[in-house]
Amino acid sequence: MRHHERHRTDRVGWLRAAVLGANDGIVSVSGLVVGVAASGASASTVLITGVAGLVAGAMSMAAGEYVSVQSQADAEAADLAVETRELQEMPDSELAELTQIYTERGLEPGLARQVAEQLTARDALATHLRDELGITEALRARPLQAALASATAFTVGALLPIATTVLAPPDRVVLVTTVATLAGLLASGGVAAWVGGAPVLRGAWRVGFWGAMAMAAAALVGRLFHVSV
Asked: Which end of the chain, C or N, has fewer beta carbons within 10 A?
């Protein structure tokens, strides 16, 4: 009987992009809102700043994730082409290379050769991608998935500080946004840790701490310049 195991590595691609997007959406837009509000700007200016930050940030996150992950996908495609050509032109050398890999991992040479032959007969290219290059289907680069996850998460995260600019009294925008942002960061950090199988409290504290540092820096800039817009 096969026992059921729950693994989370297949979530790495979109989870990383989503966590980065959500945290960036909360922190960066909150930083804009707090910084502009602390400078003495009007409520409408603060709101427009937040909305502009949301739109620009979501587009930037999507583009950045797509370009960076596509670069990884391009590298994977290049390696795939190399392995495909080598398997066609020098199958014996590739089989010997695979045997050496398994020998270095602890198998006896004879058994390593047998394993290499059987796996090569089943799917030579997939075997070399996995065992020689470390490329697996679960961890393959998916640019579009990363871009969508990042942009969506950024938008959801940015809606929190924007909501505070609408609902909070004008003279309390900085305080309300700060409190709401810290709560949101703790929640997003905890959820991300839970989804990834990590300790929830540690994840929440880590995200909350660095978010608080960013908020403090933004508020300080606004108060130092004290520019009325």
From this structure: N
